[in-house]
Every structure is written in structure tokens, then in C-alpha cells.
Automatic annotation (TrEMBL):
Database matches in PANTHER family: CYTOCHROME B561-RELATED (PTHR10106), NO EXTENDED MEMORY, ISOFORM A (PTHR10106:SF24)
MF terms (GO), sorted A to Z: metal ion binding; oxidoreductase activity
Domain of life assignment: Eukaryota
GO cellular component, one term: membrane
UniProt name for this protein: Uncharacterized protein
InterPro entries named in the record: CYB561/CYBRD1-like, Cyt_b561/ferric_Rdtase_TM
Cross-referenced SMART domains: B561 (SM00665)
Membrane topology: Multi-pass membrane protein
Amino acid sequence: MNSSNFIAFNIDNTSKTAQNFPNNEVHNSQLSLRARGNFLLNPHSSSLPTLAPQLLPSLGNDWEQRLALPTRGLLGNSPGFPPPGDHRHYEDDNEWGCGSWLEYTLVVVLSSVLLLGSLGLTLFWVIQYRGGFAWREDPKRQFNLHPVLMVAGFITFSGFSVLLYRICRCCRRIYVKLLHTVFHALAIPCVALGFLSVLDSHNLAQPPIPNFYSLHSWIGLVTMGLFAIQFVVGFFSFLILLCCEGATAGFRAALVPIHASFGLTTFVLAIAASVTGLTEKALFTLG
């Protein structure tokens, strides 16, 4: 049986608990609990935790710290403890062996190579086989900006913004959020210029090429819409609302899985748009 099952906390009825476990009150302790829906740590309360006598030897001399650990997630900014975001600790990292860390490193390196490689190969294709870049003076070469900028924004920058939450595991959460926002912010001008370049190249072509007629076009529009919503909601909810951290903690916690799910959905749609777009261009070029 888990040793924590033997712990009895004296919350409301100190005298009754003391009769069940005589001579086991721990004096001069700052660990006390009071019931108010959820348990909160109150270092100034007169109520003291009462421990089963057989448990004390197994806890050792650091029993206060060991009892405090399970409750820190409920403390908020209680006196004597840092705010929840100050020291983010990943307990599962400590349990990993060499094999797990090797697997983790390989996955991170492979993901980084794929994200950078997709952009590098697109650049090579455009420069080597399609004549490089231009603006409105040459609509055909202006189109070449579209695949490069869209892959850079939707695949490379967005991919690294997602990967940051696995790479920066030892960093403070707020720093990871800021980097996540920076990578998404870098993707915005890439997507905007890429979208403008394809519209111009279609409209300035002789004869003009219709817009939004293919599956690639509609997948791309949906992806851009979801990306814009994700950025606005994420920036407002996870950065702006930190000004009222305590009052908005529940809302932000409930929004995390939704934001993560829609983020991955947007990234998968971006991959689908890229694949269909490159395939469509290859079919049109090769006939």
C-alpha cells in the first residue's frame, strides 16, 4: 500500500484525531491544511497534521518537504512557495534512462531536419528548375514566392513553434510561450506575402488564371483561417490574460487542450495544402 494512505490530516476535529493517535502531534510545524472546497496550505493556522505512528520512520527527516509536494499544485501564490510557473519540473524526465533520452534526441533531431529540409528542398526546386523569384514584372516567377513563403510560414516556423514544447522542457513556461508566439509571428508575414504573390501571379497572367478553383486552394483558405484564429485566441488567452493570472487560471487551463488540438489540426491541414499544391503544380507543368 502507498505510504500516503497512512497519512491522516487534522483539519476540523483536532481533539478526536489526537485520541486515535495519542502523542503523535507534530509541533512547531508550518504544514497545516484547511478545507475550503479544495485543500489549501495555510502556514499560519493552528491546526497541525497528525501522522500515523508507523509512518514517521519511513518518511525520514525531510517529511515536511515530502508532504508539501502533492499540494503545491493547489497553492497558487501561498506564502513560502514560489508561483506555479517559476520552477517547472518535469518529473518524468528524471525517470528516463539512456535509451529513452536517445530516442527523444533522435526524434527531435529528425523533426528539425524535416522542418528545415522541406524549406531547403522547396528553395532548391524553385531556384534550380523554375528560374528564381520576381515580383509583378514577371507573374510566372512571382508565383515562385508562393510555395517558398507558405512552406516557410506554415511548415517550418509553425512546426518549430509546436516542437518548442518538447525541446525546451527545462525552461520556464513563460519563456516557452514567448518563443512559441515569436515563431508564429514570424509565420504571419510569410503567409501574407505568399498569399498575395499567388493572387497577383494569377490576376496578372495572360490570360488570367481563376482563383480558388482547386482542392489545394480551399484547404489553404481553411488553414489560414484556423491559423489566424489560433494566433488571436492564443495571444489573448495565454499572454494578455496573464495580467490577471489568478482570476483566469481556470479558463486558461480549460483552453489548453482545445488550443493544442486545433494547433495540431492546423499544422496537419498546412501539410495537406503543401502536398496538394506541389502535386498540382507538378501536374500542370508536366502535363
